[in-house]
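Subject: for your reference before the review

Hello V.,

The reviewers asked for a structural picture of the protein, and I figured it would be easier to keep everything in one thread rather than splitting it across files. Below is the amino acid sequence we used in the manuscript, unchanged from the supplementary table.
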Amino acid sequence: MIGLIPADFAWRSGDTWTVVVGALAAAACALPGNFLVLRRLSLMGDAISHAVLPGLAAAFLISGSLGGVEMLIGAAVVGVLTAALTQWLHSVARVEESAALGVVFSVLFALGLVLIRQADSIDLDPDCVLYGQIETAVLRTTEIGGWQVPEAALTLMGVLMVNVLVIALLFKELRLAAFDPALAAALGFRPLLLHYALMTLVAMTTVAAFESVGSILVIAMLIVPAAAARLLTDRLLPMLLLSGLIAVIGAAGGHLLAIVAPGWFGYPGVSTSTAGMICVAVGLQFGLALLIAPRHGLIVRSLRRANLRARILREDILGVLYRVEESGREISAAVLRSLVRAAVGSGPLATRLALAGLKRRGMVRGAEGRIRLTEPGSVAARSVVRAHRLWEVYLSERLGLRPDHVHGTAERLEHLAAPGIREVLAGDVGEPARDPHGTEIPRGE
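And here is what came back from the structure prediction:
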């Protein structure tokens, strides 16, 4: 960290409150965002975050007040209206769901932009609504127990507590509706009502976060922490907790980056948008989760695919060597590598590594330039060859393929036949003694 943070860096109380407000906004958005991600409604969160603008503008025009209650009511009404109109266009007018969503939120967003232009007389700032003003939001404070607490923090804390309470009370219903709406309906949980309740939470949370991150950036707070948590776990409760933790870390890290990052690019003493940097910080965490997630991460998936390719190549080598020994011949390792490369198209390095792996596992041995199967290797090779020839029989007898057209397909299927499947396959084709080419099929162990 030496050199990344300037020597004259000083953390002030205003920075602490900025982080608190950002963390509350991010955590409040992340909780309902989990259910949007699970139900594949991420675009609905984006739509609501834009479509609530006419509700905000109408609340301002009717009440002439900047109070939070009017904003939340207006947002909730328009949020539910967005979901209802989208469902109506999709189910009644037969418009494709994503197209219906695009029509509704773009029209409502445009209407909101027109209305907020008419609300200038009551000090409705479009930039605040669209881009957020987290740096100045902490300046409007109220005294509580001798402490000057930002009003935005109180509002966001209230919304966060409401979200936690609703999710805790409806946890079982929301979980079932997220994973199996049909079963939820069969059990009488009324998934459509839960859907509108979730949309109301999203709308209210969106408006509460407007002052901190703005309507354009709030979608990142709704979706990115939840998407990152989904990569890290397959269980709902840990996913909720992880998304909140990611959101809080993103808020703290984003504000710190907003202060120090400009100096890295030759702009010392200059700070950039905290709201934007919070989104960058959360996005970086998503990228890290995408790489290192224990089950869904790119690194783990790449290693899993590499291990699968290596296993398949080792089995191919065993099959080639079994056929060579079956014919009564002996070959050298060099000839074996040539045969394998010709048969399966593997590269020289991959073939050498796979053969070395078989030697380490004690499945092949070499002596005087010759390569042979060991007893464990012979057992494994017979299983591979048995699966291959059974598949050839199945493809020929059950699917009617010509005998000279079955080898390539069986070459791929032989690696997918677990012992149980292999014996079911053998029973299905009547325990044949020979394959379509007249070659003997090894017996099962």
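For the response letter, the relevant points are probably these. DSSP finds 19 helices and four strands in the chain. The longest strand covers residues 141-144.

Happy to draft the paragraph if you're swamped.

O.
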